[in-house]
Amino acid sequence: MRRFWIRMNIIYEKLMFFIFLIALLIVIYGLYDAWYVYNKANDDSYLRYKPIPGESIPEDMPITDDMVAWITIDDTNIDYPVMQGENNMEYLNINPYGEYSLSGSIFLDSRNNADFNDEYSILYGHHMEHGAMFGALDEFLDKGYLENHSTGTLIVGRNSSKVYDLGIFACMKINVFDKKALDPESWGMVKELIPKEASAVNTSITKSSHILVLSTCVEPVSTNRLLVFCYIYE
Hints:
Elements: H1 2-41, E1 67-73, E2 79-83, E3 106-108, E4 120-124, H2 143-148, E5 151-156, E6 162-175, H3 187-197, E7 200-201, E8 210-217, E9 224-233
Parallel strand pairs: 2-3, 4-8
Antiparallel strand pairs: 1-2, 1-5, 3-4, 5-6, 6-7, 6-9, 8-9
């Protein structure tokens, strides 16, 4: 009987060690995964391929042909190539190099024209920590911040065929199922929605006939979206 309990204790100790080892491996993997996602989201290697007006793109440009523009929002980490896929799922988890990445890419709504001549164009990007990707958009919920950070640049085309200035004029949260704000055909309804729903509005910004909205998630698991509205200046 004594041998039996000794054997059971040995089995129990081995089982607990095995469980502890699995738990430790899960924690290590979780830390690695968080580091990997953060590292990819903060990858600034794209910047060496940022189009320069009047110059052709480098011959070794590794960013895929789906790149349609480059967006920069002054005084933020937003300085990324803009991709456009055949649908709005393609670049959720694919980076501009065409590689799998949980941080994905900044991408233009597949329903919009790649030359940004639509009245209302939509860009999407993941909400990442420390202001990476579109995580920086949180700041625009504050009216004072929006009024002091209202400029940016949109370079259109792989060869920088056009360069536009951006004027940021409003920020608001909205439910993703509210099609009024996330449908390129609904700008007329959005104009009515902004005065009612916007958390911050800068009425001093010069108006334009072309609008660009930047859209991101508010929380990791949420149906809410954070929208920042910009005028596109010819």
